[in-house]
Design goal:
By secondary structure, the protein is mainly α. It is built from ten helices and no strands. Among the domains are: 85 residues; 51 residues. About 11% of the residues have low confidence. This is Conditioned medium-induced protein 4.
Length: 195
């Protein structure tokens, strides 16, 4: 059986290019370090699908919308993102909502369903509840974006989570693995050495 195995191995190596056989093993599934180009392509794909399905009320390009999504997942506020893109914070807010990216803390103690279903104008609602018209307009926009996202089963938000939240997690995990490996390698070493 060893002779047969050896013959098969020789035939295999003669008819195949060694680089081709091993090339696919270099970047297999489950790697903690993802290809940046792949992330950009995936982001672009999600944004383009959303553009086809919804009417985006933004003048930002797809690349700028990618920046908005990335910055949102990094925890940046609208005014910070606006500074980076050299646009108004309101434009970033609108773009963020178009991408279904809302923050839970931006609507504390507001009944978004009641606000969205209220048939009054923002001015009438503001007078009824003794609040600012701009706040009513902002909350109503957030309510609409959340309703739109729910109607799509949060599919696009989930895709952003998969691309960007996992990327941040994997970067952090890769960093932790490197640090832990260094700690394990240096554990027990004498560090107070005099030359």
């Amino acid at each position: 059986m060893n002779e047969k195995t050896e013959e098969l191995r020789e035939i295999f190596t003669e008819v195949t290019d060694e680089e081709t056989v091993t090339e696919s093993q270099e970047a297999g599934r489950g790697s903690l370090e993802q290809d940046e180009r792949d992330i950009e392509d995936r982001l672009e794909g999600v944004i383009e699908r959303m553009r086809e399905r919804y009417e985006f009320d933004t003048s930002l390009t797809t690349a700028e919308l990618q920046t908005v999504a990335r910055a949102f997942y990094e925890g940046a506020e609208d005014d910070e993102i606006a500074d980076d893109l050299d646009v108004e914070p309101g434009e970033v807010f609108d773009a963020r909502l178009a991408l279904h990216l809302t923050r839970t803390d931006e609507v504390d103690e507001v009944d978004l369903v009641a606000l969205r279903e209220h048939d009054g104008t923002p001015t009438e609602i503001a007078a009824e509840f003794d609040c600012d018209v701009d706040e009513v307009t902002r909350y109503r926009a957030i309510a609409e974006a959340r309703a739109e996202s729910r109607a799509a089963n949060d599919r696009y938000r989930d895709e952003f989570d998969s691309i960007l939240a996992d990327t941040e997690l994997s970067t952090r995990m890769a960093s932790d693995v490197r640090e832990d490996g260094l700690e394990d390698a240096t554990e027990g070493m004498e560090t107070d050495v005099s030359f």
